[in-house]
Amino acid sequence: MRFQHRPRIYCAGPYSGSGDPQVNTDTAIDWADKIVDLGGDPFIPHLSHYRHARHERPYQFWIDEDLRWLEVCDALSRFPGKSSGAENEIRVMRDTHHRPVFYDLEALKKWIVTWNLAAGLERDIWRLDMRGELSPRLNAIEESELAALRLHFNDLVKELEA
Asked: What is the assigned CATH class of domain 8-105?
């Protein structure tokens, strides 16, 4: 099932290109906390700031690691501030992974709500398809209702991918 987890959101924004890396890391943590409140699971690449302080690695190591994390995230949320690295992450997320990018939390919130609706429908469809133990609210659903659920689910998926 595609929607079996809370949406994983990559937090993109300035780190070393503009401003102080510690301040930018704090900003990323604060942004991520807002994503948690919206119902998402944030990935904060800026936390490599602390890893690097303990175990130095070349700059490209951190960039490559961040790009690998983009592969498993469901969306990207860009917080304010100038950053060529974040702009590259946006390009990779859109052009390579074909996943949505959000520049404000309100749009992200709507997307997360849609994701969660799709997750519920996907679980309901799966349960009906299995014809095993159905939850009480699903016991009365007929085949035509299952077809309607599938159509609604497909519409939500299209909305998420737009």
From this structure: alpha beta
Whole-number Å distance between alpha carbons of 138 and 41: 29
In 3D, which of 64, 104, 95, 77 has the Cα closest to residue 13? 77
Residues 65-102: pLDDT tens digits? 999 999 999 999 999 999 999 999 999 999 999 999 99
- Where along the chain do its domains lie? 8-105, 108-161
Structure-derived torsion over alpha carbons of residues 77, 78, 79, 83, reported in degrees to the nearest 10:
150
Q: How crowded is residue 26: how many other Cβ atoms within 10 Å of its Cβ? A: 13
Q: What is the pLDDT of residue 19?
A: 87
d(CA 13, CA 83): 6
Question: Tokens at residue 113, please?
Answer: 């709500």
Q: Which range, of 22-36, 54-68, 130-144, averages the lowest pLDDT?
A: 130-144
Exposed / middle / buried, residue 67 (Cβ in 10 Å: 0-12, 13-18, 19+) = middle
Strand partners of residue 43: 10
Structure tokens at 1: 């099932």
